[in-house]
Amino acid sequence: MPGASQLDAIISLMAQAHGRDLSCFDQAFLRKTLRHRLASSGSPNAEAYAQRLAVDPQEAEALWRALGITYSEFFRETLTFALLEQLVLPGLLQEMAELGRPELRLWSAAGAAGQEAYSLAILLEELTAGRGQEAAFRIFATDICPDSLAQGQEGLYEAQALQNVRLRHLNGWFTRQGEAYRVVPRLRERVAFSVHDLLDQRLASPAASIYGDFDLVMCSNLLFYYRADIRGLILDRVGRSLRAGGYLVTGQAERAMVEQDQGLRALAPVTAVFRKADQQG
Amino acid sequence: MRLKDLNIGLQLRLGLGLILVLVALLGALAWQQADALWQETRRLHEHPFTVTRAVGDIKASVLAMQKGMRELFLAETDEERRGIIQEIEAQATEADRQLSVVYAQYLGPRADVEATARALAQWKPLREEVIGLLREGRHGEAASRFKQVRAGVGQEILERVQVVAEFARQRAERFYHDALRHKEGLFNRLGLVLAGIILLTLAISYLLLQGIRGPLRDLTGVATAYGQGDLAARSGHASANEFGELALAFNRLLDTVQAQSRRQENAVRLAQAMLGQEDLRAFCRDLLQALLERTGSQAGAVYLLGAGQEAFEHLESIGLGAGARASFAPGEGQLGQAILSGQVQVIAGIPEDTPFVFATAAGDFRPRALMTIPIMAGGQALAAVCLASLKGYGPEALELVGDVLVAMSGRLGGVLAFQRISELAAKLEEQNRELETQQRELSAQAAELSEQNIELEMQKRQLDQANRLKSSFLANMSHELRTPLNSVIALSGVLERRLAGAIPAEEHGYLGVIERNGKSLLELINNLLDLSRIEAGREQIRPSTFALPELVGEVTGLIEPQAAEKGLELRASLPTGLPPLYSDPEKCRHILLNLLANAVKFTDAGHVEISAACQDHSMRVVVSDTGIGIAAEHLPYIFDEFRQADGSASRRHGGTGLGLAIAKKYANLLGGRIAVKSQPGQGSTFTLTLPLSLPGPNGGQAPAAPGRGCPPGGQMGRGGLAAGTSQQGLGRRILVVEDSEPAIVQLTDILAGQGYQVAVARDGRQALEQVASQKPEAMVLDLMMPEVDGFQVLGAIRSAPGTANLPVLILTAKHVTGEELSFLQGNNVHQLIQKGDVSKNQLLAAIAGMLPPRPGAGDGPDLGGMLDR
């Protein structure tokens, strides 16, 4: 396991030689990933690996790619999605009708290949089904990885990513193509994919959404990869993109990180759904 | 025709036939000789032998007759004589018969036989003479005569017969010699013929043997040589017979075996090439190279069925132009169809526009033939290998591909599976790391949670206990407190009335103080009881239908004296035509009373106003005052129990601090809410929003006001919650220049929601056309657009005189460089807004802010426009 000084050495080396900033990552995660790369590249120890990194741009790229984990599933955290389906989304729809808002705006931040975004779209479509008119919602799915976004736009997923999808949803919203499943075109039209870097200081919300004002932002299984202060920055920006009374959904494992945030309150204990303070009391 | 060329069958038949003929010849010869011998023997038998026997018989008969004659002499009776005579006659007849035989068979001179016959004929009368003499009894005469006859005629007969017998014996001798001579000749001839046959048979056998063994030896030699590795060894034997055919067939067999082994060697080489790589791309390159080399192709490509199974995507190619890299669907074009068939196919007649062209330095060449090799798995084409040749394909190439197809399919399937497994392993590894990270966080959380849980559990227990104590304390104590307090108030009231003028005024005033304080204490206790009831969930709602203005009138009537006492004006402005409310009137009264009392309490000068309005399905009642107001930091807490804005206010204004808490709880119970806006020193505005119809326990609407909405044209409430729906645009025309469809929809939505009239241009050219045809009042401009971009549009607008001052707001996702920024600044841009770095309200404010003031419009909100909407 690379020690703290070696870790620092590798971080500064990556920044100087390859222009990649690893300092933003959580140390434990960085260590784990380095250990994995160490084993994969066949380097005997951390020093040898650091020497190799210095001269081998391909290994540097492999390390960078290994740090950008894009794993995701549909309806990944059952409790969270149950809450969304039963409480949060119906509440938002009702609020939208009461306040006369034209549409719901949702953002799946760092949503890999759109699994979260499509999960939300399925729930909203089903909640608004039978109302006669086209459900009024707009979902933005962003990630920093263009390959993942391309996959999301294509809407083609392996069966493994769909293990939490209910049979009814599977039949209604996917078509089988060999071993894989494709999201039906109607659902694909509901999600707008674009590249967005959550670490970008300039932007609070994705450029495609123009002005944020989201009713719900889903940003799960991302925060814990980053250092505490970076997490704070991300949360701050995401919080700004929410409208007053909007919801932030994170991963279960990231609950504790959000609970410290002043502007966000957990919807209920032990849930990873938070609500931005409502200005009207 | 040469003997060699004759059929072996024919040769054998001819040889054996010849031998057969010789044997038959031999048989015939032997038969003929035997027959000749037989003739000789018969002649011997028929002539000398018969004659000799007959001569013997004649001799015997003659001797018997002579004996008879003699006996006749001796006979004593006639009877005896007669018998002997008969015997003699019989012997005479026998002699005659034998003489006729001799006559027939005798080969010598007839005279000999005739002389014998004559002698016999002479004897007869002499004999009869003797017999006659005897009968006459003249025995002596008879005896002499007999002796005479016997010596004469009898002797002559015997002599004659002897001559004949002698001749016959000589004849027999001659016959024997003839036969002997015959036999020798026969033996000689037979020996010759036999020797000839044996020689001939030997010759035929030799010839046949030569004809069979020669070619056999030749073939054996070739087979041995081939077996020892001389693959070129072939039989040189050539003839038109079976061996010729055999040699040809044998040569053909060797040719086939050699071709087969060559093919197998090719296949083995291909298989070796295929085994070399695990990486899909490297494997395909090696495979293609090996296939090109072994099938005589000049170019080739491998296509893989995409993940969506909709198209074959180019994976690797050698020697082909860019056209061959395009994907194609199964069944699409020549290739797609050939692959769909599932068979290896050779396509000749390649059309002019084929994507398969050899890219060489000298230009592109069209191949003469294409070979498509579908790689099948489970009845479906998984991948396809396409080869192209300038010469076309022979059968060997097809056979070779056929030989290796199964191995190739299996191997490619294996490599694909390997790649898939590698990908899955990578994905799994990624998932693992994420799960590990998750797990680390969760276990930390779990530890923290369990600690918190214990703490919370303890706190909860304490709280429960405290709560129980509080409730029972409140219930008991309130009752215990109220009873004596009522007595105190009642009796102090009685005393105050009765002692008016009886005691000094100052002391009488104390009684008033006692009564007032007693009442406020009672109010506090009552409020406490209300609150504990609400908290215990025991508060019951008793809904009924009632008119709000009546209720308001009742409440203002109650508050009026207090207001009048402080010199405040209490205004109630209720529009006519308000719908009736279906709710709990008691609680509504309580809320309004509380709000009004509160307003009066905190207002020292000015007025308190209560107004009401109906919006959608809810009633909005606004209580505003011109009092001291509430500081922003206290606003979040004013609805908490026992809280007033600050301690000093409480001391100055009295009250329990429970009024607003109860009002808010009641409002929530009735499905409504209370909001507050305030500025210190300027007064406060409390807004109560209640549903027109209290939601029933099952969510349905109560029957009193089914689906009733607000009448159109009803007066809008002032301030408060209505701010979000205020209208800024009011039909002002804005041109949005934007090429992204989602962005257009979003901008159009929020701008139209504000009452703007939105025109859209989807690129720079359209924007300029629209500006020229109908000038908008302002423009929202994107920078990044195809062809004519935002900078060019801006430049064009600014250089045209009519639009030089058109307000332009730049809304872009582009990271603007310093140079671009100075260009924008130089062209009088109202504001530069980064997409994603602006809130909705900021954006709307920016757009509203760039619009020039409308000529003739006032500063305030245009209520007429709102109502006309």
**Percent in helix of chain B:** 55-70%
Per DSSP, the total helix count of chain B is 19
Total number of β-strand segments of chain A? 10
* Shape label of chain A: globular
Tally of helical segments of chain A: 11
* Low-confidence parts of chain B: 698-726, 856-869
The Rg value of chain B, from CA coordinates, equals 78 Å
Strand content of chain B: 5-15%
Number of strands of chain B: 19
Helical/strand content category of chain B: alpha/beta
Overall shape of chain B: it is: elongated
On the 0 to 100 scale, the average pLDDT of chain B is 81
Regarding quaternary structure, what we see is heterodimer
What proportion of the residues of chain A is helical, as a percent range? 40-55%
List the main descriptive attributes of the protein structure presented here.
heterodimer; A: about 280 residues; alpha/beta; 3-stranded antiparallel β-sheet; 11 helices; about 15% strand; globular; B: about 850 residues; 5-stranded mixed β-sheet; disordered C terminus
Q: Would you mind describing this structure in some detail?
A:
The complex is a heterodimer of chains A (281) and B (869). Chain A is an alpha/beta fold and 281 residues long. Helix content of chain A is 45%, strand content 17%. A 7-stranded mixed β-sheet of chain A has the order 6-2-1-7-8-10-9. A 3-stranded antiparallel β-sheet of chain A has the order 3-5-4. In chain A, a hairpin with a 2-residue loop joins strand 4 and strand 5. Chain A starts with a helix and ends in a 5-residue tail after the last strand. In chain A, 42% of the residues are buried. The mean pLDDT of chain A is 87. With 869 residues, chain B is an alpha/beta fold. Chain B has a 5-stranded antiparallel β-sheet, with helices on both faces. In chain B, strands 9-11-12-14-13 form a 5-stranded mixed β-sheet, covered by helices on one side. A 5-stranded parallel β-sheet of chain B has the order 16-15-17-18-19. In chain B, strand 13 and strand 14 form a beta hairpin. The longest helix of chain B is centred in the middle third of the chain and has 104 residues. The radius of gyration of chain B is 78 Å and the shape is elongated. The C terminus of chain B is likely disordered. At the A-B interface, helix 2 of A face helix 8, helix 14 and helix 18 of B.
